[in-house]
Design a protein that fits this description.
The structure is a homodimer.
Chain A (H helix, E strand, L loop, with lengths): L12 E7 L1 H4 L7 H12 L2 E8 L3 H12 L4 E5 L10 H9 L3 E3 L1 H8 L9 H4 L3 E3 L3 E3 L8 E4 L2 E4 L3 H11 L10 E7 L3 H14 L4 E9 L2 E10 L2 H18 L3 E3 L4
Parallel strand pairs in A: 1-2, 1-3, 3-8
Antiparallel strand pairs in A: 4-5, 6-7, 7-8, 9-11, 9-12, 10-11
Helix pairs in contact in A: 3-4
């Protein structure tokens, strides 16, 4: 439902790997994908693929290797907790073919949260870091995430993932951020599609998407214009409003959210 | 964070492929994954993997071919609308190496919704069906989904996807549905992990998961027991409550949702 992206020589891409049986069973709604997608878009990193897999070492390792070869960065969430079924760290070490052990700087970070007595063998599993990784600080609960080459390993608990994003994103390369303009059109996508295709042809440097919705037993279409140049976006938006007037559509600015 | 699944000779597996740039840009929160995950779990189909990709024909075709070889069923959502950028149907035809054309029975279904005048070339794109596919009825807006071998192609608009699920699931093979019992434990996952591992060893036919949460500046853990036999689940649940009493944890039944 999205028109061709304008080419961008500065594109920095990413994939997200969500690790967790609880998402696949429907027990937990994954809120991390939407958060990370919006965050990366805002800073100029283009999220191109998401995968959700269970807590199975070989599955995780295979997905990491497929994704890290393809995208500038791979973010992972989940599976770095204290139970023996949190296998993400072993999967990362396997994917890179490196060793993994408890690391002193990770234990030091955890001492800010835990007494010596609380540093049980289960919790010390959270200080196991693959060889060569750089730690990602976690101000919430101290057990760190880490970055190994272009793979960024974060917790699955949303509040902890969020502080890890704040910590790691300043270290990353970014492209030009995309801005967006949204118009809600009270007409079916099938009626919006032909004039929108013509508008797209006139503005090849602006990405135009149409997203149908169904509310109160009626169909409508959100039209979203995206691009890295605000002036060009606003020019396309002005032409979109002209099209809406010509077609006689009812419409309003914004996505209502 | 989930212990090993009990082996189930009747396991029917699935993957979900979500197609849509709007999810990757963070504009739209994907609600379909949670709905489909819970639905499949309820009917006895085990969702093992989810992927989200953009509306790019080769990406979709490659993902479909990777997933359909691995799982009993592959569900897709999105990219079957009226615009020329809805490329899912062409991607499915390419993945299977079959032709694709406007099909009379699909057009007939659409006549229930559209007048002849409304059946524009854009809308007739929605009647293009890959050769050999069986239609999936859509009572909401009539443009059909379809099933080709083990791949089930559905709309991305949630209300339409939902009626397509109701329509197609009765045609599918199912395993024994999993039931679940959830206990909220007001203790950190690092403290819950050791006794839970012992409990898991005593109940190998029940899948035990621990899911940490962070609320009001405190950590807690949801313990979820899942299995296909209610009596064995209840036996494991009784033993879990004994463990909680022995450890002196505060806890309550249910997941609070």
């Amino acid at each position: 439902m999205t028109h061709d992206s304008p080419s961008n020589p500065e594109t920095v891409t990413a994939a997200l790997l969500v690790i967790g049986e609880e998402i696949l069973s429907g027990r937990t709604k994954d809120a991390n994908t939407a958060y990370i997608a919006a965050y990366l878009t805002r800073v100029g990193i283009s999220l191109r693929e998401v995968r959700v897999v269970a807590d199975v070492e070989d599955e995780i390792a295979a997905a990491v290797n497929a994704l890290r070869a393809r995208y500038t960065y791979v973010f992972t969430t989940g599976g770095i907790g204290p139970t023996h079924d949190d296998v993400t760290t072993d999967a990362i070490a396997k994917a890179f073919g490196v060793g993994v052990d408890i690391r002193d700087d990770a234990v030091e970070a955890m001492r800010l949260q835990y007494t010596e007595e609380d540093l049980t063998p289960a919790r010390l599993r959270m200080a196991r870091i693959p060889d060569g990784a750089a730690l990602i600080h976690n101000a919430v609960s101290r057990a760190p995430g880490y970055m190994l080459e272009n793979v960024i390993v974060m917790a699955g608990v949303p509040r902890i993932m969020q502080v890890m994003m704040d910590e790691v994103v300043p270290r990353l390369a970014k492209g030009r951020p995309m801005s967006a303009r949204t118009v809600r059109v009270d007409a079916a996508e099938g009626d919006v599609a032909p004039p929108l295709a013509a508008l797209q042809a006139a503005h090849p440097d602006v990405q135009m998407g149409s997203y149908p919705f169904f509310e109160h037993r009626r169909f409508g279409t959100y039209v979203v214009l995206r691009g890295t140049d605000d002036a060009r976006l606003d020019s396309a938006l002005a032409d979109l409003w002209d099209v809406i007037a010509t077609e006689g559509f009812s419409a309003s600015a914004g996505d209502g959210s």
